Amino acid sequence: MISYHPDSRFLTDFASANLPMAQAMCVSAHLEFCGKCRAHVQQLKEVGGHLLSQIPPVAVEAGSFEQLMSKISEPQSAPVASSLEARTIAPKSAKETYLPRSVRRLSNGSLQNLGWAQFGKALRIAPLPIAGETLETSIYDIKAGGQMPEHEHRGEEITVLLKGSFSDADGTYSRGDFVVRNAGETHQPTATQDTDCICLVCLERPVRPRGWLYRLLEPYMQYRLHSLKRAATAS
Ligand SMILES: [Zn+2]
Q: Please, what is the average pLDDT of the chain?
């Protein structure tokens, strides 16, 4: 059962296509699991459409309509939410049917196509290739029963649970949950014993590991992730 949902700020900005691509992807992933938030977003879109229809028409310069139509036909001008929902790529592996459409699209149908960096025995991370996005967006794969290093957040972090579950001192999170952590918060997620935990993670700034060993390794970890992201975005 889903216990953690995006707050109204996320849903309103998603409905009006005002979220950065990476955060829109996290909300879109949650919506695939959560009928309640899907209905809420639909209502927000209807209210937005109604408000727009109430705005009186204004006189426009000659040629403005043609300019607007040419802008709409440019692929990059498509609203974020719509562009994420537009194309569906079927999962190549039957085991990956749990993946949201946006993740399937960016991984070309399978997580196996992503570039993975292994950190210790329990954790591997694959950056997602979102061109021009400054927020770090990745897939985390934590082995069943595995524990991530304790870390402190230096900015907002959104985690959407795609498969399995993990727990930390504040609670247990399951498939579909949308978990937000803020700057200054510290935690140490541990995957439950029964299955590997796959998460979509969007970070405003890289996290700061607490243990001395991970602090020593941090520059290497950041270098490795940036190299993988550069390679994925270029291909
Ligand atoms: Zn929800």
A: 80
Residue 164: closest CA among 129, 115, 200? 200
- Cα(176) to ligand 1 centroid in Å equals 8
How confident is the model at residue 79, as a pLDDT?
43
Class of domain 94-234: mainly beta
Q: Kindly state the tokens that stand for 177.
A: 């949950």
Q: Predicted confidence band at 82 (pLDDT cuts at 50, 70, 90)?
A: very low
Tell me whether residue 85 is exposed, middle or buried, using C-beta atoms within 10 angstroms of its C-beta: 0 to 12, 13 to 18, 19 or more: middle
Q: Which of 135, 186, 137 lies closest to 159 in space, CA to CA? A: 137
Q: Which listed CATH number (1.10.10.1320, 3.40.50.1820, 3.40.640.10, 3.40.50.1980) goes with 8-86?
A: 1.10.10.1320
Q: How far is the CA of 160 from the centre of ligand 1 (A)?
A: 11
Nearest to 82 by CA among 54, 53, 41, 113: 41
CA of 180 to the centre of ligand 1 (A): 13
Contact between 11 and 44 (Cβ < 8 Å): yes
User: At 233, which amino acid appears?
Assistant: T
Q: Is the pTM of this model over 0.85?
A: no
pLDDT of residue 80: 44
pLDDT band at 52 (very low <50, low <70, confident <90, very high): low
The domain segmentation of the chain, as residue ranges, is 8-86, 94-234
Ligand 1 centroid to residue 222 C-alpha, Å: 32
